[in-house]
Every structure is written in C-alpha cells, then in structure tokens.
Request: fold
Amino acid sequence: MANTADISRGMIIKLDGSLYSVVEFGENKTARAAAKVWAKLKGVDNNRSIEKTWNSGDTIYPVRVERKYYQYLYKDDTGYNFMDNETFEQVAVAENLVDAPQFLKEGAEVSVLFNTETEQPMSVELPDKIELLVTYSEPGVRGDTATRTLKPATVETGATVMVPLFVNEGELIRVNTKSGEYVERVK
Reply:
C-alpha cells in the first residue's frame, strides 16, 4: 500500500474502479488545517480528466505498469496491431488507447504500457517527435514572410499538419506527436 506522499507524475493509480495517470500534483498547507494533496488525473481506460484531493497521508492504490517496446504493423477490424521486437508476439489495441493514431506509420517503434495484474495493454505512446514525408502541399506565395504564415500539408499517414510556407511536397518534416505541430524540416 502507498500513501499520498508517494504520488509522482506519470504514476498510474486505481480510483473508483478506473485507472488514472497523474498529470500534475501538489500540496496545500494552511496554518490551521491539515495538509491536503491534490492531483490532476487523466483516465487511462476512459477519456475523463478529473481533479482529486486527499488528506495528507491517505492511502492510494498504485497499479504496477510495465513498458514494452513494440513495432506498429497494421490496422484492421480488431484495432491497431503491434509486434514485440524480442518475442515477435502480436497484440491488438483499440484506437482510443493510442495517443496519436493519425501519426502512426507502419514500422514505427512505440511503447506500450501493460497492466501487470491483468497483462492487458493500457495505452500506446508514440515517440515525442516523429519524421514524416509531406505527400501534398500547396506551393507557398513568394514574399509572404512578414508574419509566421502557415499552410496545411498532408503527410504520409494522411494527417494534416500546419507547416511554414517554405516546406514543399516530398520533403521530410519532424512533427511533435503530443501537440500535432510542425517542429522542423529534416535534412
């Protein structure tokens, strides 16, 4: 058993029958009252985001999680299919468990979080930045560079990313998978 002093960012805890990941946490102390511990939680097995407050020293129920690296193979009726690089074991994961499915391309290496109690996949995380090929982009207007003007570009996975005017079709770009924003052009 753990208590509120053990809370850390990224920890998975069980609360009211659901699993939540700690996004942010802190402590409120007042002169007359006991300290309180608060946390912003994001649902792992649901799409809810909540805030929870405990009295300092209350019991929490952390879930042991194992991170394994898998390679993305394909998408079908069962969901997104991944293969363990060491054992070649395959696992199918529902789309709502993948953090940025629009940037997932075949052969990409991802990390899959498994609940060690049930051996079920809880979420799939792409790398923070991923390189993608621009398959379609309108040509930029020459001389329109006074402001940071962006244009839409379609990448090889079918997703649309806003890119600067100088990015053209056929170029490799680096995209932030968390925000979906253009980072830089890859040489």
